[in-house]
Task: structure prediction
Amino acid sequence: MPHIKRGRAALWTAAALALTAGLLLPGPRPAAAAQPVEWVTLGDSYTAGVIEATGRVVADDGCARTVESYPEIIRRGLGPRVHAVNVSCGGATVENIVSKERIPVSRPVAPGQETPEYPPTPPQISAVTADTDLITVGVGSETLGLSGILAECTALGHESAGLGAPCRDAFAGSVESGLSKVRVEYAEMLRALHDKAPFARVITVGYPRLVPEDPALCRFNNPLEFGTITPEDLRWLRTALLEPLNAEIEHAAAEAGDTHVDLYASSAGHSVCDDLGGRNWADGLQSAVPRSWAYAHPNARGQAHAAGRVRAAILS
Result:
């Protein structure tokens, strides 16, 4: 539908100019008065923030959206120029965006700790309407099964005493099917978003660098890094999961004619294992301050970096 895309692009050019100038934006539909940009944020834990290193939770619905997550940072910065609705949720899959409700579990819980109970959240696309001007979406890791793979890699690395690549050996055969699932579902999600909000600009957000180029930077059995995941499994996680996942998301955005924000290249040198306590923009299995579970997620520095990149895309 090229005429729809041209119309959407023209409307967003006006929106971006209005945002950049600090003005309120007249919506794409006739309106009696100037209106803020209607912005909906969708995504998983990398969008929501989730971990204690990104501050307090903004709403007690179990999704663990935090005050220092990148959507909240951008919302505060743009102020009344946007009307922001953030429905990102920890653990969300692509299906949870489009068609499947999710039962959230709040912040990551430690082994043996009781999991809190929350009511299910509707598919996140429910927050999108025909009046939505802007959608940002960061999702895909849980469709690939990243958190479960990380947990299994930790257990297998402990059993192997840090030798070999037991996790690669266990999961190598299933990774391609997981990436294929992301490929198909992500494209379907983007089509569904455009169908529901035909005048909206959609910005996809990739994942930051978690594992360094040289896995030897990571200290084995250090919970502030990757615990007992072996060096060879860390290399495999980077090259066979994280980098292909980002490539699938970028390709889907390009096919749909959407904007993509690449956080991976710009976070080089700031992985979990890079200069812990300063240069690292993501925490490992645990965060140093406060001492809490992180499960390899962006800390406040990582979320601030994401905020800068996504904000620049919004205003472009």
Remarks:
- The beta strands are 37-43, 82-86, 134-138, 201-205, 259-261, 282-283, 286-287, 292-293, 297-298.
- The first strand starts at residue 37 and ends at 43.
